[in-house]
Amino acid sequence: MLSHNAIQAPSTRIHPDVPVTRHTATQLVPPAFAPSQPHQVILYASNAEIYGQGERATALYQVEFGAVRVYRLLSDGRRQISAFHVAGEVFGFEADGHHHFFAEAICNSAIRIFRQPLGADIARGILPIALKALIRAQEHLLVIGRQNAAERVAAFLLDQLERQGGLPQVELAMSRTDIGDYLGLTIETVSRVFSKFREKGYIRLQGVRTVELIKPEALRALCV
Amino acid sequence: MLSHNAIQAPSTRIHPDVPVTRHTATQLVPPAFAPSQPHQVILYASNAEIYGQGERATALYQVEFGAVRVYRLLSDGRRQISAFHVAGEVFGFEADGHHHFFAEAICNSAIRIFRQPLGADIARGILPIALKALIRAQEHLLVIGRQNAAERVAAFLLDQLERQGGLPQVELAMSRTDIGDYLGLTIETVSRVFSKFREKGYIRLQGVRTVELIKPEALRALCV
DNA sequence: GAAGAAATTCGGTTATATCCTAAGGGAAAC
DNA sequence: GTTTCCCTTAGGATATAACCGAATTTCTTC
User: Fold this and answer.
1) Which of A6, A103, A168, A188 fits as disulfide partner to A77, beta carbons 3.0 to 4.6 Å?
2) Residue B34: strand, helix, or coil
């Protein structure tokens, strides 16, 4: 009964059991470039579900463009986003053939889906990606387990900066609610920290979704 | 400046650069059962460091007996334990050849060390283990990101119960400080929740490290 | 461009967990 | 058996972020 931004349920879910119609999306690209490795790119509308907790996990996913949130829910609607994924990143790993999380498109997104079973050579290629995801998750544990609100938001902004190649102009694909649910904070707290950083001259806000990091070193000093 | 249980540094570290002498341990078992796959079992004393953040990662580790904590530190000493490992479990995965975390023996422990490079077949065997670790970490994010103190401790106790095969008598290898740093709480809060669970009849404490889960279903109802 | 809806920001109050201090208990050392 | 030290428990004050309500801004839709 602590933290919130309560959310009823995966909202845009339509047909949980039928992958083909599970999304409000249209096919974009011919399904396969090689017969032996059938994979297709599917468009997902904003907030469309890509997969849901409990479903059988039969594929891997790669973001072509757009952004994805992977999250888990408590029964009362509390949500924890464990990761965001942007263009190029692979997600959807599962250990036992079932999804333990939900995945949704944050904005209109194209997702490439790999359905072939994992041979040894493919496993070798996937392992480093999975290990990187593991390290990211464990580092995120430090952020939400031991850092205060300002430190968490600073870490988040720096992470976004890094992912967008270092240009100080950072485009946020996600809402304040998403950021809060990623950082284990409420939207009010996230908003307050943004305002505080603005007042201190660390960032400049051009619209709600565009953040210019003026003093990244100040943010970096915060969360070391 | 929020949460604590501050710890200066990996305390028992002796020779950071010399793996063989890095621990206060003695060799236990002949180094290899197969010449092509040299691996050895090393004894670590309680609180001895197994590896440290920044060191080159050249091996995988498996707990023979005892228990291990894997953690990360902030510069002011705040610590987040990302995982505990008990007999049979494998840890020490790294993505880029360097350790991003510290690993220490919680109690006197024996660790089997695998040094051979990862071939495709081995990668395939390791992948499911890494994926399981990834899911654990992401599920733990939900616990410390969105659950309150009582829910966190309940989740921890149930996790320990499951790991020890379901016998209601749970032996805790770790101190209250370790539990706090795993759950993102202070030791006072952990202790208070233990007391509250005892008063409610959920658990019985036989000594500090032995917890009998009398009503696991009550704990389960707490953290769903 | 106007109206409506949604998302974000702001202000004030409250609750939870930290912080600080101190007492109690067990294990190890003498 | 006694002492010492460390871990744990306990109590009370404080602070941080949640909670609640509302104003403002932004985005959609017409």
Assistant:
1) A6
2) coil
Q: How many CA atoms lie within 13 A of B191 on its CB side?
A: 7
For domain A19-139, give its CATH number from 3.90.340.10, 3.10.20.70, 3.40.50.720, 2.60.120.10. 2.60.120.10
In chain A, domain spans:
19-139, 147-222
pTM: 0.86
CA closest to A182 among chain B residues: B145
- The protein side of the strand C contact, defined by CB less than 7 Å from any of its atoms, consists of A 1-2, 175-177, 187-188, 190-192, 194-195, 205, 208-209; B 1-4, 148-150, 184-186, 188-189, 192, 207-208
Which strand C nucleotides have any atom less than 7 A from protein CB atoms?
7-12, 16-21, 26-27
Mean pLDDT by 10 residues, chain A (224 residues): 46 29 33 49 96 94 97 97 96 94 97 82 85 97 98 98 92 97 98 97 95 97 94
Alpha-carbon distance of A3 to A20, in angstroms, equals 35
Q: Which residues contact A139 (CB under 8 A, 6 or more apart)?
A: B72, B100
Angle (nearest 5°) at CA A97 between A50 and A35: 70
Give the closest residue to A85 by CA, choosing from A137, A17, A14, A147.
Answer: A137
